[in-house]
UniProtKB/TrEMBL annotation:
<protein>
    <submittedName>
        <fullName>AcrR family transcriptional regulator</fullName>
    </submittedName>
</protein>
<feature type="domain" description="HTH tetR-type">
    <location>
        <begin position="1"/>
        <end position="61"/>
    </location>
</feature>
<dbReference type="InterPro" id="IPR009057">
    <property type="entry name" value="Homeodomain-like_sf"/>
</dbReference>
<feature type="DNA-binding region" description="H-T-H motif">
    <location>
        <begin position="24"/>
        <end position="43"/>
    </location>
</feature>
<dbReference type="Pfam" id="PF00440">
    <property type="entry name" value="TetR_N"/>
</dbReference>
<dbReference type="InterPro" id="IPR001647">
    <property type="entry name" value="HTH_TetR"/>
</dbReference>
<dbReference type="GO" id="GO:0003677">
    <property type="term" value="F:DNA binding"/>
</dbReference>
<dbReference type="InterPro" id="IPR050624">
    <property type="entry name" value="HTH-type_Tx_Regulator"/>
</dbReference>
<keyword id="KW-0238">DNA-binding</keyword>
Length: 290
C-alpha cells in the first residue's frame, strides 16, 4: 500500500467514526503516521481527501464491473449476479465507505463531493437499469428505472445492516436472493399500470454519464496544458515531448472518436520523462476510457 492509499484509508475510518466536519487534517495525518505538513504533499485539503476516497474505491469497483461485463461466457443474468456479488464483497471489505455514504455530513461536505456522489449514484442506477432491460427484455423497459431503484434500495438496507449494525449475513447468498426478489417485482409489472419513474423525470440521472465524460475530458485537457506550460522553451528533447503532448491534446479533443491505441502509445512515450502531473493525467485518461 502506498502513502496516498494509507492516507485515504485513515481518513475514511475517521470520517466514518467521527463525521466529516469533526475530523481535522491533523487527525488524518496522525492516523496515517505522518506529520501534518507532509500530508499536504499528497492532498491540498480535507475536501480533496473526501473526493479521492469516493473516486478511488468506485474506480476500482466499476473497473471490476466492466471486466465482468466483457466476459462473453456469461449470460446477462450471470453477469449481473456476479457484479452484484462483487459490489457486496467490496462494501463488506470496506465498511467505512458504507458508513461514509450513509452519513449525510460527508455527502454534503462541499459541491465537488456532492457532484461526485451524485455521478456515482447515477452510474449505479444506469448500470442496474441496463442490466435489468438486458435480462428481462422489452416487457420491463417502461419500469426499468423503478425496478433498478427498488433493487438499489433493498441492497442498501442489507449493506446498512452489515456496515452500521455489524450484523453477520451470508454474503454468498445475497446477490442471488435479491435477483429472485427482482424476478417477482418484474412479474408484477403488468397491465395498465404506469411507472412512477419516467425517462423525463430521471433525465438528470440518465444524462449524468455523458456529463461525467465531458468533465473528465476537460480535466485531461487541463492537465495537458499544465504539462506543456512547464516545459522549457528550447531543446530537441523538450520539443519532442511538447509535440507528443500537443498530439495527445488534439486526440483527446475528439471525445468519443479518440483512438485508445493512439492515446496509449503517447502515454507510454511520455511516461519515461518524469513529467509533472503525469500520474494524474494517466489516472484521468484511464477513467475516461473505462
Amino acid at each position: 500500500m502506498n502513502r496516498k492509499e494509507e492516507i485515504l484509508r485513515s481518513a475514511m475510518k475517521l470520517f466514518a467514526q467521527k463525521g466529516y466536519y469533526a475530523t481535522s487534517m491533523q487527525e488524518i495525518a496522525e492516523q496515517s503516521g505522518m506529520a501534518k505538513g507532509s500530508i499536504y504533499n499528497y492532498f491540498k485539503s480535507k475536501e480533496e481527501v473526501a473526493v479521492s476516497i469516493f473516486r478511488y474505491h468506485y474506480d476500482i469497483l466499476f473497473r471490476k464491473m466492466k471486466d465482468i461485463a466483457d466476459d462473453g461466457d456469461l449470460s446477462a443474468r450471470e453477469k449481473f449476479e456476479k457484479q452484484l456479488s462483487v459490489q457486496i464483497e467490496e462494501f463488506s471489505r470496506h465498511k467505512e465507505l458504507v458508513q461514509m455514504l450513509m452519513g449525510e455530513q460527508t455527502v454534503k461536505a462541499n459541491d465537488e463531493v456532492h457532484r461526485l456522489v451524485f455521478r456515482i449514484r447515477a452510474k449505479t442506477l444506469n448500470w442496474y437499469r441496463r442490466a435489468i432491460e438486458e435480462i428481462y427484455g422489452e416487457k420491463v423497459r417502461r419500469f426499468s428505472l423503478d425496478c433498478a431503484t427498488m433493487l438499489n434500495g433493498m441492497l442498501k438496507e442489507y449493506l446498512f445492516y452489515m456496515a452500521i449494525d455489524r450484523k453477520q449475513l451470508p454474503l454468498a447468498k445475497l446477490a442471488s436472493f435479491l435477483l429472485r426478489r427482482l424476478d417477482a417485482i418484474v412479474a408484477s409489472m403488468a397491465g395498465q399500470e404506469e411507472p412512477l419513474l419516467t425517462m423525463e423525470t430521471m433525465y438528470d440521472y440518465l444524462s449524468a454519464e455523458q456529463t461525467d465524460q465531458q468533465e473528465r475530458q476537460k480535466q485531461i485537457l487541463t492537465y495537458l496544458d499544465q504539462m506543456i506550460a512547464t516545459l522549457p522553451a528550447n531543446g530537441d528533447v523538450e520539443e519532442n515531448v511538447r509535440h507528443s503532448l500537443e498530439t495527445l491534446k488534439q486526440e483527446m479533443k475528439k471525445g468519443e472518436e479518440a483512438r485508445p491505441f493512439m492515446v496509449e502509445a503517447l502515454l507510454l512515450y511520455l511516461e519515461k520523462w518524469d513529467l509533472p502531473f503525469y500520474d494524474e493525467l494517466k489516472a484521468a485518461i484511464d477513467r475516461y476510457f473505462d
